[in-house]
Automatic annotation (TrEMBL):
Biased composition (Basic and acidic residues): 189-199
Biological classification of the source: Bacteria, Pseudomonadati, Bacteroidota, Cytophagia, Cytophagales
Start and end residues of each Transposase DDE domain: 337-459
Disordered: annotated segments: 189-226
Protein name: IS1182 family transposase
Length: 496
């Protein structure tokens, strides 16, 4: 007989939410894993002692963590999704017939809480990872990736020159940031744009709608902290830079921060190292090796890591060369000798346009003018001059490390540790795009994403089962047992 299910939509008189969520459920285990009560003390000073009760801070943090775990970027979609899930309602502490907070309440509460509260939650979860043995601390892999900002590239505006006054009639309009780049950078940018407009092609003068944008001359009024950046193989967009440090033992995130996307990775390493060292020391761990790609290669970073007794496994990249062809260096005299036997002594230090310090070496004017090799060595100059970074010794030690077999192993270890973590965060934890604005908001979102990732690591961790101890018999007793078994086998065979 064919069955047909009838749905009457009856009112259930006896229903308990805890009975509908199985013990192995993700959110039930997560509710039992973390003690969330410390958040009340962390946020107590942010509320008044009078007025209407606000959204429970524990409920807020649980709700935004669900958004990271469910890969939901929108607060509106997050609230709608949670209302349909019994396990999430049990995790949040809400009844089936109880209304969830509005999405605007979640957004305002996120703006109310400072980044320090989110940092405290990250430290709390990280400490549990250390207690479970998921973090070794001695080797950390560092990398960064751009994250799309909550702003469109079509809405960028041109910055106003420094000292320009606003018209009287537009007092309610947002104030445009002043151009703060150095004059030589502005001249270089103007020359570059003029050259590209004069060239034929899609960005030339034939297309009037073509816009040549730069962070030195343009900004986003929607999110002034977002920066124009481009990644090879992808379109130009307004982004933030997510910088991560991942422990190589089990892949637990040990530090995360939001940086401006228009600067080099090497400039963000000192701040990242400070936060990472603070967290590791708080958990009685010591950093010994730091793994990073060539984007973090910087003489100041090499010197900083050596001063903190941390071995930098960062490939040397750029214009640095361990030796200058045709010139021999005398370390004791701090001077070079050319192929003609002329000495180029050290004369002075100098600061380059990018702010780095270099040492200048040059030969005497008379030596170069009378040298037979002048036509090939310095054909258009009066004398030969060499520049050398003040961090040459640290550069050379890093270059030697990367040539060793261990250096190749550390490079593969970094690729297999931190790069998969970024893939998971971008595609499975809602970090493909920011749903907030400002650098502080981006930092909070990245912290929540890292907390959700570490919580998943905690839930998946299974301590190794203790192996049963095997009792080893003494050799003589073992031999007797073997003879007895053999004799019984022979007797049984003869009887049959």
């Amino acid at each position: 007989m064919q069955g047909k299910k009838a749905f009457l939509d009856k009112e259930v008189t006896r229903f308990r939410l805890s009975e509908r969520v199985p013990p192995h459920n993700l959110y039930r285990r997560l509710a039992e894993l973390v003690d969330w009560s410390f958040l009340y003390e962390e946020t107590r000073a942010l509320y008044s002692h009078t007025g209407q009760p606000s959204l429970d801070p524990v409920v807020f943090f649980k709700l935004v963590l669900v958004g990271r775990l469910e890969n939901l970027v929108s607060d509106r979609r997050l609230v709608e999704h949670c209302a349909l899930r019994l396990d999430i309602l049990f995790f949040l502490g809400y009844e089936v017939n109880e209304e969830l907070p509005w999405h605007s309440t979640v957004s305002r509460t996120r703006q109310l809480f400072p980044a320090a509260v989110f940092e405290r939650l990250f430290d709390h979860v990280f400490a549990q990872c250390v207690a479970r043995g998921l973090v070794a601390g001695d080797t950390q892999a560092v990398d960064s990736a751009p994250v799309k900002a909550n702003a469109s590239l079509d809405s960028v505006c041109e910055k106003q020159p420094a000292g320009a006054r606003r018209p009287f009639l537009v007092t309610d309009a947002p104030v445009a940031p002043a151009v703060t780049a150095p004059a030589y950078q502005l001249r270089r940018e103007a020359a570059r744009q003029a050259k590209r407009r004069s060239e034929p092609g899609p960005l030339g003068a034939q297309h009037e709608k073509a816009r040549l944008l730069s962070n030195k001359t343009h900004y986003s009024p929607t999110d002034p902290d977002a920066r124009i950046s481009i990644k090879p193989g992808k379109a130009r967009a307004l982004n933030y830079l997510c910088s991560l440090a991942v422990d190589t033992a089990r892949g637990v995130i040990s530090h995360v921060q939001a940086d401006y996307a228009d600067s080099r990775d090497s400039l963000h390493l000192p701040r990242l190292l400070t936060g990472l060292q603070r967290r590791l020391r708080a958990n009685e761990l010591r950093l010994r090796d730091l793994l990073a790609d060539a984007g973090y290669a910087n003489g100041a970073n090499y010197a900083l890591l050596e001063a903190q007794q941390v071995t930098a496994w960062i490939p040397v990249f750029g214009q640095y060369k361990p030796e200058i062809a045709g010139f021999a260096y005398n370390r004791s005299a701090d001077a070079y000798t050319c192929a003609a036997g002329k000495v180029l002594p050290f004369h002075r230090h100098e600061v380059t346009t990018d702010g780095s310090w270099v040492k200048l070496y040059w030969a005497a004017y008379s030596d170069c003018q009378q040298c037979p090799l002048k036509s090939t060595c310095v054909p258009g100059a009066k004398r030969k001059q060499l520049t050398k970074t003040i961090y040459d010794a640290a550069y050379y030690r890093a270059w030697q490390r990367q040539q060793t077999r261990r250096g190749h192993r550390q490079r593969r270890l970094r690729q297999s540790t931190v790069e998969p973590v970024f893939g998971h965060l971008l595609h499975h934890y809602g970090l493909r795009r920011m749903n907030v604005r400002s650098q502080a908001g981006a930092h909070k979102t990245m912290l929540l994403t890292a907390v959700a990732y570490n919580l998943k690591k905690l839930l998946k961790h299974r301590p190794q089962q203790q192996l049963s101890l095997a009792i080893a018999l003494p050799k003589p007793l073992l031999a007797v047992n073997r003879r007895v078994r053999h004799a019984s086998y022979q007797s049984g065979y003869q009887l049959t």
